[in-house]
Every structure is written in structure tokens, then in C-alpha cells.
Amino acid sequence: MAKKPLSAWPWENLGSFKYVIYGPLAANVMYSWIYEDSYKHPWCVHILIICALRGFMHQLWNSYNNMLFLGNCRIKQQGVEFKQIDNEWDWDNFILLQGLLATMACLMFPSMDDEFPIWNTKGFITLMLLHVMVSEPLYYWMHRFFHGRYLFTHYHSLHHSSSVPHPFTAGHATFLEHLILSMVIGIPIMGSILMGSGSTSMIYGYVLGFDFMRCMGHSNVEVIHGAIFNKLPFLRYLIYTPTYHSLHHSDMGTNFCLFMPLFDAMWNTLNSNSWQLHNKITSNSGENGRVPDFVFLAHILDVMSAMHIAFVNRSFASISFSTRIFLLPFWPATLMILLMMWAWSKTFLLTFYNLRGRLYQTWVVPRFGFQYFLPFAADGINKKIEEAILKADRMGVKVISLAALNKNEALNGGGTLFVNKHPQLKVRVCHGNTLSAAVIVKEIPKDVKEVFLTGSTSKLGRAIALYLCRRHVRVLMLTSSTERFQKIQKEAPTDTQNYLVHVTKYQAAQNCKTWIAGKWITPWEQRWAPSGTHFHQFVVPPILASRRDCTYGDLAAMRLPEDVEGLGSCEYKLERGVVHACHAGGAVHQLEGWTHHEIGPIDVDRIDLVWEAALKHGFRPVFQP
């Protein structure tokens, strides 16, 4: 169906290049700063500053909405999915539009070149009168008109397509709607200025206050406690709440107001459930509703990846992680925050999703990856992990899966330390590595007769070697320890022990085209691999892809079932809808209802069993078997 007039944004095909539109303003400011004693057009500076502050305002509200660990009063319990994030990707188009309209207004009225006073009391009074008497009723009736069949179908339905309210939803609308909204916000400002009572603080305060209220109304977190309205009932007609506006999105025939429910009350469109729902949500503050069925206990990798989370940048967190230049200026501040978290923070809730009526959460231990290799930090890290396990046990969580270094053998024996210390645990502790091993061995083509394995005496390396030798695959196990090699070799069936070969140098694999990296392989060491080699890997971080004549696999991972709901973040460098195999392994443990702890060494006999269980529940391999 062809788009209707003014439904599309003029710059929607420009992508990130749309910000070039700010170029003339920025150029004017730079020219005046370098070549002139004062700014010839001071409004250029103010427009750029206001646009930046408006973007920052929305980002702050985004952060607050996604700080799940605060235990806020959430209105809708669903998570924001990738589809909504993509639809709202250009939520800031309205800031660009209103910046252009402000520029046009300043060019049309030469008096705008004059400096406004910082404060003008008369201007604030005029502004508020124009807002209440003109902007509020104008918005109300325009909003009602846009709920008519034609305008809603072709224009306003875009805004209502967002199933979970979010501050960015406020900006998710058509070009025509934001032209009208620009008029709504512009009338009080221009009216006060044309009456000769404008001021700098009035413009900044009204624009930022307007955005604050819009973000608050579209927030999925209730921020105004019901007790305030109970003590001062008249306030509920003067200021709306996130709960109030959420009812408009669920019952679209009510609650049309801009910020003041008074106008809904005047024209009989106030939802009768508004105050009861608001009291109910705020009275349940801190209870957080449902108990998760499964928890994936992760940790921070490094400073850059710490910014790959929804409460820092929702859009960035919704795509696979990679180092971005625009993040570099934020590196020092992020480091300082992480150091403070190291000193004072507890394990916190980061993300969640739903699968077949079950709630799955990711918690984070506030520790860097490098800290796991510091001997003096081991006890503190284990204490954090232990506290998380005991918290999950008290809450009634069924399975908690330890991610990455949280299950390091040298640290806690793959979770054995905690289970032995607390034998009464009801929550099942799981390292998920059985499925990790399954993903790796299933990825290897059946016609492969020889593999080269580094990290061969690690937990995963041992399981992979023992499994492959049973398939009569020759495994070149790289290790400097003859004792550890022989120990693993003795675990293999007698008739397959000869398939495990002890090697101490990379040169031994110069004719082997299947390498499995369980230990970091430098580009210099990779040179021994013959052309056409494929590198499978389970080492964190992944090895560098330094050979153009070779191919490199990703870390062991699985795609979540198609019926997963509320997923809007990517796990590190994995694509959307894909999680690390140890994450999937813990989820399968919960779905199957297994009552044993999956800790310590991997049970090779269960690799095929766990693999089949994962496939049965809809988990799919990322590779093509």
C-alpha cells in the first residue's frame, strides 16, 4: 500500500547521514567562534544545545526504564522486542524536525538575533497560560481526530504499533503528527516571545520540560506514587502518569490528554480505571511479581563490552557487539563507574525474556574478566557467586547456570564448591558445558578423521577429546603435561585410546585442517595450520581471524526457540536470538525438569542426550549440521 502524504520522513533513506542537516548550524557556530568576536546568530548555539539536551533527556529516561535492578513499578511485564526497537530506531527524527523549524522561525524574525534575558516572570506566566488554554486543548482534539478510522489507519497506528511503552515510543510517529506536535510546543514559546516577554530560561525550561513529561508518560515504569494523589486528589487532574497514558495504548478510546487529565474529564474520555490501576501498581512497588524459573549468571568482560547493555544504549545492545568509535569518549566514565561497582555493587538483574510462560533472567556479577585471574580476587568473586546462588534459592528459582569464568575450574571447580558447601540447595546449579561440548562436536563434519585440539585438558577439551575418540576420530591433544594427557586417555574405552595422541608443538598439526581452539592461539601459531583450515573454538575471548585462507567458527551457541518473547538484547558478539551454549544448556536443564546439579567434569555419556533434549525444545544450532 502506497504511503499517504506526510506519513514518511523526508530523510528516512539517509540513515545516520540525516545528522548532516545540523551541519549549517554547526558551521555557523564554528565560524563565529573562530573569526568573530561574538556570535552573530546566537540562536544557532542555543538550537544545537537544546537538541543535544533533548537527546540526552531521552537517553536518561531510556536508562531508567532499562535499569531492571532498581525494582521499579513496571506497568507491563513484557520485554521490548527487537521488532519494536527497530521500528523506533529513528525516534529522534522529531528533534531534527523541530530544530529545522526553530531555525526557520529565527530566520523569519530578525529580532531573534538579540540576546534574551535569562529570566522573565511575565514570560513564564504567559507561557503557562498559553500552554493550558491553547496547547492542551489543541493537542487533545487533534489526538482524538487521529483516532478516527482514516487518520489512525494511515498515520497514528504507527505510534500504537509499539506494544510496550518506552520513552523512545514518544518520538515514534509520522512526519505529519510531529508537524502538529511542533505547533503544539511552539505556540506557547512564540506567543511569549512575540509579546515581548521571552527569556532564555523559559525556552530551555519549556522544551526540556515538555520532553520530560512526554518521556515520563511513555515510560513503562510508574514514577508518581499513588499516595501523593490520595493526599492531594486535585493533582491527578493536573498531571498525568505513565499508568494513565498506558491505558490509552490498551484502551484507545480514552485518556487522550497531552499532560493534564482535566481535559479528559471535561470531555468525558477519562478511563474509569485510571486511579485504581495507578494505586495498584504503586502499592506493589518492590514486590517485582514473578519469580524467574531460570537465571543465567554472567559477568562483565571488559570496559567496552560493558557499554553493550540496554540501559546504556538500547539500540547498540540490540545488535552484536563490536568496538565502535563513538563509544571511545565514554570509556573513561564507564571505567570509573565499573570501578565503583567493583567496590560497592552487588549482583544485579540485567535482562529477561519469556519462554512458554516461564521467566528467564540474566544476572551479572560486577567483576571484570581479568579479575578472575588475580589470585587475591578469587575469594571475593566466589562470595558474589555464592550470594547469587543463595538468593536464587531463597526466591525459588529452579535452575541457575554459571556463565564463562563464573564456572572456572580453578576458581570453584565448575560450581562444585557451592554445591558441596550448601548440600541443601533446592536450586539446581548448572555449568551448561555439556551442551557446549555437544555443539562443538556436532559442528564437526562426520567425514573428518583428524582434529587438532588446544586446551585439550580443560573441562571442555577433555569431553570433546573423549567423545571424538569414540567416533574413531584421531585427536591431536596439545598439552605440555604428559600426566594430564594420560589421565584423560585412561578414561577412554580401551579400543579407542589409540585415537588420542599427545603432541607438544603446533607443528604436529601442519597437515590437519580441523583445529579446535580451547586455548588462545596467536596469529604466529596459526601459521602452522594448512590452507583451508577451519578453526572451531570455545576460547574466550575468541581467537583473531588472522588467516585469509582459513575460516573461523563462532563460540559454541544455539538459537533460542521461535516462540521466545520479550527478547531485545544480544549476548556479546552473537547475533539476535542466539545465546551461548552454556546459557541454552541451563535453559534445557530447566525445561526438562532435571533434578541433578550439572557441575564438575562433563559426563560424556550425556552429550547426545542433552543435544537431543535441546533440539526437542526448539533450540537450533547456529551452524548447518
Characterization of the model:
It is found in: Membrane. Residues 451-621 form the Very-long-chain aldehyde decarbonylase CER1-like C-terminal domain. Keywords: Membrane, Transmembrane, Transmembrane helix. With 625 residues, the protein is an alpha/beta fold. Helices cover 43% and strands 11% of the residues. It folds into four domains: 20-66 and 88-108 and 116-220, no CATH class; 224-287, no CATH class; 292-429, no CATH class; 433-556, NAD(P)-binding Rossmann-like Domain (Rossmann fold). The chain contains 23 helices and 17 strands. It has a six-stranded mixed beta sheet with strand order 7-6-3-5-4-15, sandwiched between helices. A six-stranded parallel beta sheet has the order 10-9-8-11-12-13, covered by helices on one side. Strand 11 (514-517), helix 21 and strand 12 form a beta-alpha-beta unit. The protein is elongated, with a radius of gyration of 29 Å. The two termini are 40 Å apart.
